[in-house]
Design brief:
Shape: globular
Number of helices: 6
Distance between the termini: 48 Å
Structural class: alpha+beta
Order of helices and strands: HHEEHHHEEH
Number of strands: 4
Length: 161
């Protein structure tokens, strides 16, 4: 009986510890996502481009999606894919595209998972060197999408300090 009680207590402590660790990694609160949306909108307005914007959690699952103004209809499907790709690969989608080119180490990765997007504009989000999510930007040129994404990453890093 004493052994059973000890095992039960250890299980409770282990579960509590694991739950605390999981909660610590949930950085992308609704409030933080809202602030990132504001940053995306402000930067896109500064550049004079309508965008679509997505945030995914560390597993690539959707947290937020916004389409501002007359953003390209194609961006509706591309942007969540950019965020997913950046989250699951923990790399910028532009870098994944290079690694997926013919003869490169990840050649054909997008054929194994149709959610993988090889279009620039997806960026991972790290806190304490741990992936916590990703963003996807679309609607402008590649340079505009990347400029907006880099701005949002900087805003994110300032907010989670």
């Amino acid at each position: 009986m004493k052994r059973l009680l000890t095992v039960g207590l250890l299980a409770i402590f282990a579960t509590t510890f694991c739950m605390a660790q999981m909660n610590k990694k949930e950085i992308l609160s609704d409030e933080l996502c809202d602030k990132l949306c504001v940053a995306a909108r402000e930067k896109s307005n500064e550049l004079g481009v309508d965008i679509s914007f997505a945030i995914a959690d560390r597993h690539g699952l959707p947290r937020v999606y916004r389409r501002y103004g007359d953003a390209l209809v194609l961006s509706i499907t591309l942007v969540p894919g950019k965020a997913y790709t950046a989250a699951v690969t923990q790399c910028k989608t532009k870098d994944v595209a290079q690694a997926a080119a013919e003869g490169a180490p990840l050649m054909g990765i997008q054929t194994n998972d149709p959610r993988i997007t090889l279009v620039a504009g997806g960026y991972p989000l790290f806190a304490d060197r741990t992936i916590v999510g990703a963003i996807g930007i679309g609607g402008g040129t590649e340079a505009q999408d990347c400029e907006i994404a880099e701005h949002i990453v900087k805003v994110f890093e300032e907010l989670v300090k």
